[in-house]
Fold:
Amino acid sequence: ELNADAAWYYPDPKPEAEEIKDRVAFWKGVKVEA
Structure:
């Protein structure tokens, strides 16, 4: 199953959210397998 909108990242967050810069976020229920 593919969900194209299940992950996103923050390349240029607001200054007060700088700690999440370039981090990847996943929608709840997403399972990452390698």
